[in-house]
Amino acid sequence: MVNLGLSKVDETVAAKHPGLSEYAACQSHAFMKGTGAFITGSGAAFVLQKLLLHRRLALSMQWNVLLSIVTGSIASYTVTRRETQRCSNLWIYLETGRTPEQLVTENILSPGPKETAESSMRETKYGDSME
């Protein structure tokens, strides 16, 4: 078993996917950035409400905290989503050696599934037969 963060991965899986540790590190970094964005966004929103908007928006402490948490959650979601997409692109690159943009252009330019002589059997680009 190979340690990957807190979990263990079978050696065959780790050997089959050599970029697994880089992807796991990238995902961990993305989640930590999201956590930091939540804390920073919530704190900044709370301070802004207290310092700048206190006279215009006379809200109780409960509403100030709620708005701060919602703002921090939106910031956290945005940062985590962006970083996770980067990690996904890294994983695709490590597995195929091509960027996702290159794969999209290859799929557009490659011919579709081939029809065979049999009734409605088609062959995919991977060589699988399907109806």
Automatic annotation (TrEMBL):
Location of region: Disordered: 109-131
Keywords, sorted A to Z: Membrane, Transmembrane
Feature: compositional bias, Basic and acidic residues: 115-131
Highest taxon of the lineage: Eukaryota
Name this protein carries in UniProt: Transmembrane protein 141
Highest classification ranks of the organism: Eukaryota, Metazoa, Chordata, Craniata, Vertebrata
